[in-house]
Design brief:
With 179 residues, the protein is an all-beta fold. The chain contains 1 helix and 15 strands, in the order E-E-E-E-E-E-E-E-E-E-E-H-E-E-E-E.
Length: 179
């Protein structure tokens, strides 16, 4: 039986009336951050690593993130969170890794549609060394290098179309490999 994250109940309260747009789980499988379709950022813990049925959400840590429909938690210490709403990506710092309570104001904001001339960004990924952002725009994956790792203020567009008409893609542990 699959675990339905949309029906999670904690202390008798339904914490997500709609599914999550996006979520990330820490590399050790014990920490969780997710954005619901009702635009709330939640954190939680998995008591058994990688077993979503053991997820306990931190209801007190609920943060409103209007318009967000995709996200990534990145950086070597997991204190950078990148939230996307349509073509706009904002970079925030978490005071404590994987803790929604400590979400800071936006450190940087970029409009990928304006930079690339392509509207309709569906999702994005940042590679493992933080030197590049890959955006799913229209029917393409486009590359946006960052001259300073993890810093959106240094993001540029080099007009590189990585893939044409992909249906799915993922970054490998090698920061330069996309499949």
């Amino acid at each position: 039986v699959a675990f339905d994250i949309a029906t999670l109940v904690d202390n008798g309260e339904n914490v997500a009336t709609q599914p999550f747009f996006a979520f990330n789980i820490s590399s050790d499988g014990t920490s969780f951050l997710g954005v619901t379709t009702t635009n709330f950022l939640l954190d939680g813990t998995l008591s058994t690593p990688w077993d979503i049925s053991t997820l306990t959400l931190n209801i007190a840590g609920l943060q409103s993130v209007p318009g967000v429909n995709f996200m990534q938690v990145r950086h070597d210490d997991n204190t950078k969170i990148y939230l996307g709403a349509d073509d706009v990506v904002t970079q925030h710092t978490l005071g404590t890794a994987w803790d929604a309570d400590t979400l800071g104001a936006a450190d940087a904001t970029v409009d990928l549609g304006t930079i690339s001339g392509e509207s309709i960004t569906f999702d994005f990924m940042i590679n493992n060394d933080g030197a590049g952002l890959y955006a799913f725009q229209n029917s393409n994956i486009r590359k946006f290098p960052m001259s300073t790792s993890w810093d959106l203020t240094t993001l540029t567009y080099d007009n590189t179309q990585v893939l044409d008409a992909p249906t799915e893609a993922s970054l490998t542990d090698s920061p330069s490999t996309l499949f």
